[in-house]
Write a structure and sequence with these properties.
By secondary structure, the protein is mainly α. Helices cover 76% and strands 0% of the residues. It has a domain at 68-294. It has 22 helices and no strands. The N and C termini lie far apart (52 Å).
Length: 447
């Protein structure tokens, strides 16, 4: 049996697949930005039109879906839902709040550091899935606006994830293709990530510290809470922490063994559901499993499915390859100009597109320049430019990174929605500033 060709359908009316896919992409994003129609509906409709217009066939569309991301999000949402029944998130919320004397601006700064560190050691999507419920609980108890905390969490997750091999999917792709280690990323990107994090924390402090106020009564009430009283099911807590420890170990050690994070997350979710329901009758098990699955933010899951297919259509039509080749033509083969161009183009495109297919397209393109630039060592600044641009660019909009949409999903469920344009007005300038800092770092350190 021969494999099905990547693209067997004829584009409608014989039109150019480049133009059809580009128009569909622009219209899809315009509809998402307008927020007049739910983003999952828009993304799925755009995906369907990509197939109906012949840019992709169904097999190619399915191959375009990053099921590892879908599985990771779904599995972690189930894990968070079951774990939350134990009261552990309330415990963490009270503990963290009391450590800074329930001072809202101090909580904001603590959250930035905590999110960045966890995103570097785990991955940014897992981090926000674990921390966002805590953030919403804290802001609810202190009756302060959640938006500043959620925005800082998004920024810190993408910044922290930039520092390591496992922190962000683009780094995993680059590391696997080039043979870079965890320490390679930490040594080369860690210093500038720390500087950028401090700058963004400073911006957040200037923007929101004076606006984040609560009453002495609310602070006193929170400070009077006893962390241990928040734990409502100690047996479930032990089971949840045990499974979460195994899942986190799987994230760290699974990649060299060929085990993807999505598999780890779904297996962990199934194991925790088993431990939580073991010994119950069939009817009770069904009720509890239904509740757990009901906590999955299906709007976000289906939005990702549609968005992956839309981007796959643009990629298969050759639009991303055209951009990559044009990028290299502009630089004339100069290493410094090439690195700087890769940094900025990666950042801007990653703010409006999924960065994974762009990075996947750029990897072989950069690798092909090895002989022209003077060997593999000469390519290293280009790899760091690609990683910095793709990861930091994720902060440019709400659709720039998986972590952003995961936070938005929790916020929407809590009836504290993050608006696309409202977030982008803040996020895009912040992203440009962080990329400018990274630009200086690249030139000074490597050229």
């Amino acid at each position: 049996m021969t494999a099905a060709p990547e693209h067997t359908a004829e584009v409608i009316f014989g039109w150019s697949p480049v133009w059809v896919s580009s128009v569909l992409l622009v219209v899809t994003y315009a509809a998402i930005i307008s927020e007049r129609i739910n983003r999952s509906i828009v993304a799925l409709l755009g995906a369907g039109l990509m197939i109906m217009c012949g840019v992709l066939n169904q097999d190619a569309a399915i191959r375009g879906i990053d099921f590892n991301t879908i599985a990771l999000l779904t599995g972690m949402m189930v894990l968070v839902a079951v774990t939350g029944k134990s009261g552990v998130f309330q415990y963490v919320a009270i503990w963290m709040t009391k450590r800074v004397n329930a001072h809202p601006p101090a909580i904001l700064m603590s959250l930035a550091v905590l999110t960045a560190v966890f995103s570097a050691l785990l991955d940014n999507v897992t981090t926000v899935l674990l921390l966002t419920p805590v953030v919403l609980l804290i802001t609810d108890q202190l009756q302060v606006k959640a938006y500043p905390y959620l925005a800082v969490e998004i920024f810190a997750s993408n910044i922290g994830g930039t520092a390591t091999l496992i922190g962000d999917p683009p780094n995993i792709l680059i590391g696997s293709a080039v043979g870079l280690s965890f320490n390679d990323f930490l040594f080369n990107l860690g210093p500038i990530v720390l500087v950028i994090l401090l700058v963004v924390m400073g911006i957040a402090w200037l923007l929101w510290s004076r606006r984040l106020e609560t009453t002495d009564e609310l602070r006193a009430r929170v400070l009077s809470f006893t962390e241990s009283d928040a734990i409502t099911d100690r047996k479930l807590l032990v089971k949840s922490l045990g499974v979460l420890s195994l899942v986190l170990a799987g994230f760290v050690f699974g990649h060299p063994l060929g085990i993807q994070p999505g598999t780890v997350a779904l297996t962990g979710a199934a194991l925790l559901l088993l431990l939580d329901n073991f010994g119950r009758d069939a009817e009770t098990q069904s009720e509890e499993v239904h509740k757990a699955y009901g906590e999955v933010e299906w709007i976000t899951i289906f939005f990702f499915v549609g968005l992956f297919i839309v981007v796959a259509g643009v990629e298969q039509a050759g639009v991303l390859e055209m951009i990559a080749n044009q990028l290299l033509a502009w630089t004339g083969g100069d290493p410094r100009n090439t690195a700087v161009t890769i940094l900025w183009v990666s950042a801007i495109l990653s703010a409006i597109l999924d960065n994974i297919p762009f990075v996947a397209t750029m990897i072989p393109t950069i690798a092909s320049m090895e002989a022209e630039l003077g060997g593999p060592d000469a390519l290293m600044p280009l790899w760091w430019a690609l990683a910095l641009g793709a990861c930091l660019g994720g902060n440019g909009s709400l659709v720039g990174a998986s972590a952003n949409l995961s936070v938005a999903a929790f916020a929407e469920r809590a009836k504290r929605p993050i608006r696309f344009l409202g977030f982008m007005k803040l996020a895009f300038p912040v992203m440009l500033l962080t990329v400018a800092i990274a630009n200086v770092y690249l030139v000074v350190r490597y050229f």
